[in-house]
From TrEMBL, chain A:
Cofactor(s) needed by this chain: [2Fe-2S] cluster
InterPro entries (UniProt xref): NuoE-like (IPR002023), NuoE_dom (IPR042128), NuoE_N (IPR041921), Thioredoxin-like_sf (IPR036249)
UniProtKB keywords: 2Fe-2S, Iron, Iron-sulfur, Metal-binding, Oxidoreductase
Family: Belongs to the complex I 24 kDa subunit family.
Cofactor: binding details: Binds 1 [2Fe-2S] cluster.
Binding site for [2Fe-2S] cluster: 87, 92, 128, 132
Gene Ontology MF terms in the entry: 2 iron, 2 sulfur cluster binding; metal ion binding; NADH dehydrogenase activity
Name by which UniProt lists this protein: NADH-quinone oxidoreductase subunit E
Pfam families in alphabetical order: 2Fe-2S_thioredx
Organism in which the protein naturally occurs: Methylobacter tundripaludum (strain ATCC BAA-1195 / DSM 17260 / SV96)
Domain of life: Bacteria
Lineage: Bacteria, Pseudomonadati, Pseudomonadota, Gammaproteobacteria, Methylococcales
UniProtKB/TrEMBL annotation, chain B:
Stretches assigned to the NADH-ubiquinone oxidoreductase 51kDa subunit iron-sulphur binding domain: 331-376
Domain of life of the organism encoding this protein: Bacteria
UniProt-listed InterPro entries: NADH-UbQ_OxRdtase_51kDa_CS, NADH-UbQ_OxRdtase_suF, Nuo51_FMN-bd, Nuo51_FMN-bd_sf, Nuop51_4Fe4S-bd, Nuop51_4Fe4S-bd_sf, Soluble_ligand-bd
Quaternary context: Composed of 13 different subunits. Subunits NuoCD, E, F, and G constitute the peripheral sector of the complex.
Protein name, as recorded: NADH-quinone oxidoreductase subunit F
MF terms in GO: 4 iron, 4 sulfur cluster binding; FMN binding; metal ion binding; NAD binding; NADH dehydrogenase (ubiquinone) activity; oxidoreductase activity; quinone binding
Task of the protein: NDH-1 shuttles electrons from NADH, via FMN and iron-sulfur (Fe-S) centers, to quinones in the respiratory chain.
Cofactor requirement: [4Fe-4S] cluster; FMN
Keyword Transcription regulation attributed: no
Alphabetical keyword list: 4Fe-4S, Flavoprotein, FMN, Iron, Iron-sulfur, Metal-binding, NAD, Oxidoreductase, Quinone, Translocase
């Protein structure tokens, strides 16, 4: 069977997105999974990819853009190889998350959301990560790190 | 008997390891399901859960058996769905993560029984995108359950079939609201839907759908296995069963504990959490997450029951307490909370979209020394305008709970900022 080629997506991405379709009633339902698949391969979702995914799912690019910009974990701008999310919700805030965020940005010489000069990192705030008994916490890539101190920030950044 | 006193956490180990299928079965796992499928009709299962008195553990406390009984079962050929709400994102709450990561089969068994009770053949787990460990372990557990015949066609040689799909979200607090969750699951922006129709009648893709919280579903296998009377006997208060209670903030030992419903808040904070850290005093607390009203040390003897906490002027919510110490400014704490809610508002209805950022602006001005005493009236007015009945969903009414109670209990702190500017 010939698989359609959508300009802007790799065959691997298209296969993974199509595989998700079996779990849902219609193609639209795969929107979020599809954007996450693109991100797994490319770290972020470019305009070109967004349009290609919309075409694959038979929805308008505007509708998909509405979805993409709604969710915190879909990036519509380039991000570093590792995204560091620091929790800034109430318990972490009480125990010093502002300092954690500032420290991460200072060490990397970036603003929030910006990519470090070497392309390695992006720092973003995130809502409660559900580990308040170990506040303040950060999520480095997919990994949760507990009880963050200034030393821990250095360790995370490998310095 | 330890096992029977703490059914939800009996398999939870200090090393936070994964409970495999074999481990789970060795402590009575999947016995509740066996009983349900072999001996009980769907309506009987609903009745057991209703009689047990299980109320939803996501925050609202709706009767679980009652919810199930509202699903139309007259046309058995109709598609029905069960959804496990694993989108834990209430600030200060960390209970479902433990259940998902460390005993995923408990959730899966609860889901199979719940699906049987409402005759759903397809179920979804709506998991927070940030819960990566939980995702990995649920995937493993689902495979194990399928290979052992607990999922799929003719479960345990019965006529019942069920498929469970794990869906991971992309992060937004509003996804925890059940109709917003359904929109997210349909691949749309997670805006809440108008009710009625309720999801029980018209939910996912317009089909009858039950959405239950993770902890709620985790109670179900034990009710079936050990019985209604045993379950009712677990509690110390009016509400039934046990619950995961917790405390975070400047307490000596932040954590989670499975305790009987009706446990006094004082016991949770002073005994289980070890009281305040040295050098800190208890100023107040949010009993069940960011969207609950502040209570004061004078409320420590209130028990964790839905009505008891409501009578004290707050909500039990998720049952995980956020502790305010005497060195944290309550005005700044409320600013942090309102910033969260303003950011996470879906923007669908005007009071929430415009009102929450307004509270943030006023609070920032007050803290910056640019506040006026009239601002406190404006804030109080906003808590009413964003209250129940004025918005599409419960986000804004929840958001103003800590604000309205802070204005009541910590008014002097607000006034001090305003007076500072005058001086």
């Amino acid at each position: 069977m010939n698989e359609p080629i959508f300009e802007g997506l790799s065959l691997a991405e298209i296969r993974e997105i199509n595989a998700e379709m079996s779990h849902y009633e219609n193609k639209t339902a795969v929107s979020i999974e599809a954007l996450k698949i693109v991100q797994k391969h490319r770290r972020w979702v470019s305009d070109q990819c967004l349009i290609a995914v919309a075409e694959l799912l038979d929805i308008s690019p505007a509708q998909l853009e509405g979805v993409a910009t709604f969710y915190n974990l879909i990036y519509r701008q380039p991000v570093g190889k590792t995204v560091i999310h620091y929790c800034n919700s109430v318990t972490c805030w009480m125990l010093g998350s502002d300092q954690v965020g500032e420290s991460l940005c200072r060490h990397l010489n970036v603003e929030l959301g910006e990519m470090s000069a070497d392309g390695e990192y992006t720092v973003l705030p995130i809502v409660c990560l559900g580990a308040c008994d170990h506040a303040p916490v950060v999520m480095v890539g997919n990994e949760l790190k507990f009880d963050i101190t200034e030393d821990a920030v250095n360790e995370i950044l490998g310095r | 008997m330890e096992t029977l006193a703490k059914p939800l956490t009996k398999n939870i180990r200090p090393d936070r390891a994964f409970t495999t299928l074999a481990d789970y079965e060795s402590t009575g796992g999947y016995q509740g399901l066996r009983k349900a499928l072999a001996e009980l009709q769907p309506k009987d299962v609903q009745q057991w859960v209703k009689d047990a008195g299980l109320r939803g553990r996501g925050g609202a406390g709706f009767g679980t058996g009652l919810k199930w009984s509202l699903v139309p079962l007259d046309d058995l050929s109709q598609t029905r769905y069960l959804v496990a709400n694993a989108d834990e994102m209430e600030p200060g709450t960390f209970k479902d993560r433990m259940l998902l990561e460390q005993d995923p089969h408990q959730l899966i068994e609860g889901m199979i029984i719940a699906a049987y009770a409402i005759q759903a053949q397809k179920a979804y787990i709506f998991l927070r995108g940030e819960y990566h460990v939980a995702k990995f372990r649920l995937e493993q557990a689902l495979l194990e359950a399928k290979s052992k015949g607990y999922l799929g066609e003719h479960i345990l040689n019965s006529a019942f079939n069920l498929e469970i799909v794990l869906h991971t979200g992309a992060g937004r607090y509003i996804c925890g609201e059940e109709t917003a969750l359904l929109n997210a699951l349909e691949g749309k922006r997670a805006t809440p839907r108008a009710k009625p129709p309720f999801p029980l009648v018209s939910g996912l893709w317009g089909k009858p759908t039950v959405v239950n919280n993770v902890e709620t579903l985790c109670n179900v296998p034990h009710i079936l296995h050990y019985g209604v009377e045993w379950y009712q006997g677990l509690a110390r208060g009016v509400d039934k069963g046990t619950k995961l209670f917790g405390a975070g903030g400047r307490v000596k030992h932040p954590g989670l504990w499975e305790l009987p419903m009706g446990t006094p808040i004082r016991e949770i904070i002073e005994q289980h959490a070890g009281g305040m850290r040295d050098g800190y005093k208890l100023r107040g607390f949010l009993p069940g997450g960011a969207s609950t009203d502040f209570l004061l040390p004078e409320h420590l003897d209130v028990v964790m029951d839905f009505e008891a906490v409501a009578k004290a002027g707050s909500r039990m919510g998720t049952g995980v307490i956020i502790v305010l110490d005497d060195k944290t400014c309550p005005v700044r704490m409320v600013l942090n909370l309102e910033q969260f809610f303003a950011q996470e508002s879906c923007g669908w209805c005007t009071p929430c979209r415009d009102g929450l950022p307004w509270t943030v602006t006023l609070l920032k001005d007050i803290i910056a020394g640019k506040g006026r005493i009239e601002d406190l009236d404006t804030l109080a007015g906003l808590t009413r305008m964003l209250g129940p009945g004025n918005t599409f969903c419960a986000l804004a009414p929840g958001a103003v709970e800590p604000l309205q109670s802070a204005l009541k209990y910590f008014r002097a702190d607000f006034e001090r900022y305003i007076a500072m500017e005058r001086a």
